[in-house]
Amino acid sequence: MPPPLLRHLASLAIGSAGPANTQPYFSAERTSWLSPDDTLSILMIIGGDIVQRAVAQLAGSGPLTPYWHFAPVAFSFGWLAYSVSALTSAVGDGRLMPQPDCPVIVVNAKTGYRRQNASWILGRLVRDYEKDRREDRSLNIAFYHTMSGEGAPEAGVPARDWVYWSGVFVILAQLAISVVPGALHGNWIVLVVTVGGTVLALLGSGLPQWREEKYAARTIEKGPEVVCLTRGNGSTYAMVVISETGIRLEDLAGGRDKQRRTTSVMSAALSILWVVLLLTVEGLDGDAWYLLAIGGLGMVQNVVAAGAARSASALGIHFAPLDKDGDVICGEKVIDSLMEAEERQAGVGLAMLKLFFPGELRPHEQSFWDKKKAGKSQVAKCHADNGKNPPQMSKPQDNRPLPQDDRPLATPWPESASKCEADSLTSNLSEKSSQSQSAAPSSIL
C-alpha cells in the first residue's frame, strides 16, 4: 500500500486534471486582456534610446526662449527609462546628445586636417544624403553651397518639416483620446496621466542644453570654409560643403562641450516626477486600453522621428539648390573623381587623396598631384607675403569716360588681391601649352 504522502500527491494530480479546472487560468487571461494594467508599468521602462534620438532630431526646431524651447516629442512608454539614463549622463560627462550613428570623416580642404565626426547632425546629414543616391559608381562627389546673404535662413535654426508637424499632431491626438474615458465613464485619471506625461516630455526635450550642444560651433568670420564629408576609403559618396557665412562645420565635428549646471538639477527633478507618474499608472483601475493606445501612438511618433530621413534644412544647415549636372562629379574611377574635384575647387582632391589612396600612385597620377601640391604651396607662400605687406587699393582715375554702353565702372580691386591665384593659374596654363606644343609635331607626323 503506498504511503499517505504519495496517495495525497496522486489525488491532487488526478483531481487537478481535466477541462473542468482550467477555468481559473482562462479567467486570469481574460482579465489581463480586458484591462492590461500591469502591462503598462512594464512598457514604461523600455525604449529610452529611441526617445533620446527623437529629441536629438527635433531639438531647437520650435519657438525659442532663453530657458526653454519647444520640441514636439510625444509622451511614450520610453520616457521613464530615458530620464534615468539622462540623469546618469548629466551627472557624468554632462552630455545630452547621443553619439552619431553614422561614422563620418571630416576633412578641411584648406589644411588637409582630418578628424572623426562627433556631431549627430553631420552624421545624419551624410546618412540621409546617401539614401537619396543609390547609384553604383566609383566616387560621387557633390558640391553644396550654404545659403548666405539677406533673407537667407539662419544657420543652426532648423526648418519645420513633416516630422516636426507630425509630432504636434500626435500630441494633440493623445490629449483628445485621453478625454474619452472621462467623458464616458468619469475616469479622468487617464487624462491626468496623459497631461502629466506630455508636460514632463516637453520639459525634458526643451532643456536649453539640447540646442546649445547640438549646434556648438563658432561662426565663420574670415573667408569661406570648405569641408569634405565622407565615410572614408571604400565609400562611394562624398560631400563638399562650401560656407561663406554661418557656423563652422569643423567645430561641429569636434563635439564641443556645452554642459550646464541647471541640466543636472532638472534631470534629477524630472526623474523623480517620472517615477511618480509610474506609480500613478500602476494604480490605474480600468480603461487601461486608452492609456495603452496613447503610449503606443507616442512610441510610433518617437520611432519615426528618431529614424526618418530629413533634409539638410530640417537639420539646421541650409543649402542652395543643387545643380545635379554642374555640382555633382562622378568619374570612371575614384582617382578621376578626385582629380576633377581638385580642378573644380582647389584643395578638395588633395585633402581626400590620402584618405582614398594611402599607398603609392601611378607615375602620371603622382605627377598630377605633385603639380597641384606645388601650386598650393606657391599660393600659400604668396598669401603669407601679402599678409606681411598688404596690398594697397588702386585709386580710380578721375574723369574717366564711361563705356559706350553706359555701364558703370568696375569697383577698384586691390592691386595684388588675386595675384597669387593668377600666378598659379598662369604657370599651369604655360605648362599645358608647352605640353601641347611638344606634342603637335608628333601628331602632324
Number of strands: 6
> Which strand order do you get reading across the main beta sheet?
2-1-4-5-3-6
Major beta-sheet overview: 6 strands, mixed
Order of helices and strands: HHHHHEEHEHHHEEHHHEHHHH
Task: Please provide a written account of the structure.
By secondary structure, this protein is of the alpha+beta class. It has helices at residues 4-16, 23-34, 37-43, 48-58, 79-91, 120-131, 162-185, 189-205, 208-214, 249-254, 261-282, 288-307, 334-344, 348-356, 363-388, 419-444, and strands spanning 105-108, 114-116, 140-145, 225-230, 237-243, 328-330. The chain has a six-stranded mixed β-sheet, with helices on both faces. Helix 5 packs antiparallel against helix 11 and helix 13 packs antiparallel against helix 14 (348-356). It starts with a helix and ends with a helix. The model is unreliable at 14-18, 389-418 and 432-445 (pLDDT under 50).
Supply the key terms.
alpha+beta, six-stranded mixed β-sheet, 6 strands, elongated
Brief characterization of the structure:
The protein has 445 residues and is of the alpha+beta class.
Which helices and strands occur, and which strands form pairs?
Layout: H1 4-16, H2 23-34, H3 37-43, H4 48-58, H5 79-91, E1 105-108, E2 114-116, H6 120-131, E3 140-145, H7 162-185, H8 189-205, H9 208-214, E4 225-230, E5 237-243, H10 249-254, H11 261-282, H12 288-307, E6 328-330, H13 334-344, H14 348-356, H15 363-388, H16 419-444
Parallel strand pairs: 3-5
Antiparallel strand pairs: 1-2, 1-4, 3-6, 4-5
Helix pairs in contact: 3-11, 4-5, 4-12, 5-11, 7-8, 7-12, 8-11, 13-14, 15-16
